[in-house]
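Quick one:
INPUT:
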């Protein structure tokens, strides 16, 4: 299996009833960071917090074989409008519980017990990695810099998500 760096095609979705592309600081951070790491931005979109609209957008992206990963920011809290987990979880073929666990562990050092309110999670859907992050820029920075970036780097040892990609459709 090759350990060479690979440029991924990554879609970014901001789930928000109030943000626009112009003021989406979390999405802008992710788009800048993924491109700085050598990946390609597939698209950056905004969607209001509506579970069926979120699900439709993400379903379209995971059906596109050119999309390797989806990063979603927002809608992972506990308010009545937060519905990203309910929208995305039914699309997953496999969950990645370690991501949410690690994210909350790392968040503890920044926000203490408030990390209990995070429903950040990740998984695999149709050979596409999907990460659902809180909407704050600091949460997106933590997730990218301490977890996702290394797993999207084919040289990360002892293993990384990029190295698994050729085997995702094994039966």
């Amino acid at each position: 299996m090759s350990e060479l760096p690979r440029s991924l095609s990554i879609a970014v979705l901001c789930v928000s009833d109030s943000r626009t592309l112009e003021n989406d600081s979390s999405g802008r951070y992710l788009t800048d960071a993924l491109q700085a790491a050598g990946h390609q931005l597939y698209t950056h979109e905004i969607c209001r917090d509506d579970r069926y609209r979120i699900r439709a957008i993400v379903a379209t992206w995971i059906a596109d074989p050119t999309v390797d990963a989806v990063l979603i920011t927002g809608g992972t809290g506990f308010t009545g409008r937060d519905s990203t987990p309910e929208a995305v979880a039914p699309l997953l073929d496999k969950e990645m519980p370690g991501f949410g666990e690690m994210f909350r562990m790392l968040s503890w050092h920044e926000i203490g017990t408030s990390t209990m309110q995070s429903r950040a999670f990740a998984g695999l859907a149709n050979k596409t990695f999907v990460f659902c992050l809180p909407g704050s820029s600091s949460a997106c920075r933590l997730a990218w810099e301490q977890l996702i970036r290394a797993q999207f780097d084919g040289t990360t040892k002892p293993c990384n998500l990029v190295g698994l990609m050729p085997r995702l459709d094994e039966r």
